[in-house]
Write a structure and sequence with these properties.
332 residues; alpha/beta; Aspartate Aminotransferase, domain 1; 7-stranded mixed β-sheet; 4-stranded antiparallel β-sheet; 11 helices
Length: 332
């Protein structure tokens, strides 16, 4: 493990902590959840608490295998995407292995790679593993499927592994997914947290070669997906088709926000998903603090290496209107 690791990764979604500190009502634009999630008919069954979950999660793996057109032995599960990233790294990365991570992007890749003994660099030609977030967090950039197929071909030729994080793909354009491609050199990850706006239900799943999935399942701690999470995930699997309506509504709201930002002269990264990284023309830290006093939580992108940027989630029209009113009041 890299001895220089001294802190956890910074994440958004601090509403519970803010609520504990003040009576102010906050609208949370710092966490990127689907603002229009499908309705999942589910309620906790207390009887599930009487037994351990099935640690092989066969029913769960079968359900998600059907969703992505793969076999159950190509599916692994985990306590959210963070556990899957951590498990993947400890399974694949060897001490001193170069790992390619191009910033700005999700911080858990670099931390997990270093914890597993890897050395992280951007644009490293000799990397044994390359991480790609698609669409990317925090920029929202969606890499076309054709480009990823080219990356995979290069990985196969060099006997390396490409990890593609598709946590937001269902909220962007699932036609760009590579989850249907079977290769020993490709691993794809998905997350219910973002798609169904259920951060309290920790569930993610991965798609990969059966040999890699088997090794990851050995590395994963036993019973890491609790019974409530498993039950919800099974119910949510039947609602994936409804995410098309979410995508349509998110696109409308995102375009509405971007048109107002453009009119106000505020630059932003073109996004394909449910969040936008923008450049307000002043340092992110004091702006984030000022917005917090107005009941608006946004993501300071300093931890992404972008101290001049903030990231905002796309929410409902009225909430988006309140965000822009507060933002324009702070930057004018």
């Amino acid at each position: 493990m890299d001895p220089g690791i001294v802190a956890k990764v910074v994440h958004g979604g601090k509403v519970p902590r803010q609520k504990n500190n003040t009576a102010t009502h906050y609208i949370d634009f710092s966490a990127n959840f689907n603002p229009f999630p499908p309705r999942v008919a589910w309620s906790p069954d207390l009887a599930l608490l009487a037994d351990y979950p099935d640690d092989e999660y066969l029913e769960l793996r079968e359900a998600y295998a059907r969703l992505v057109g793969r076999a159950p032995e190509e599916i692994c599960v985990g306590n959210g995407s963070a556990e899957i990233i951590r498990t993947f790294c400890h399974t694949v990365i060897r001490e001193g292995m170069p790992v390619r991570i191009d910033p700005p992007t999700f911080g858990e890749y670099a931390l997990s790679a270093r914890l597993a003994g890897g050395t992280v660099a951007a644009g490293s030609g000799g990397a044994g593993v390359r991480f790609l977030c698609n669409p990317n967090n925090p920029t929202g950039y969606l890499t076309p499927r054709s480009n990823i197929v080219e990356m995979l071909a290069a990985a196969e030729k060099a006997d390396r592994v490409l990890f593609v994080d598709e946590a937001f793909i269902e909220l962007a354009d699932p036609r760009q997914s590579v989850a249907d491609i079977a290769s020993p050199h490709l691993f794809v990850m998905r997350s219910l947290t973002k798609e169904f706006a259920v951060p309290g239900i920790r569930f993610g799943f991965g798609i990969g070669d059966p040999a890699l999935v088997s090794r990851m399942e050995i590395m994963r701690p036993p019973w890491s997906v609790n019974s409530f999470a498993e039950s919800f995930a099974l119910a949510a699997a039947r609602k994936y088709r409804d995410l098309g309506e979410s995508r349509h509504r998110i696109e409308n709201e995102r375009e509405w926000i971007c048109s107002r930002l453009l009119g106000a002269g505020i630059a932003y990264e073109p996004s394909a998903t449910n969040f936008i990284m923008l450049y307000p023309g002043q340092p992110a830290a004091p702006l984030t603090a000022a917005l917090r006093t107005m009941g608006i939580l946004v993501r300071d992108c300093t931890s992404f290496g972008k101290p001049e940027a903030i990231r905002v989630a796309v929410r409902t029209r009225e909430e988006n209107r309140l965000l822009l009113e507060a933002l324009f009041a702070c930057v004018r």
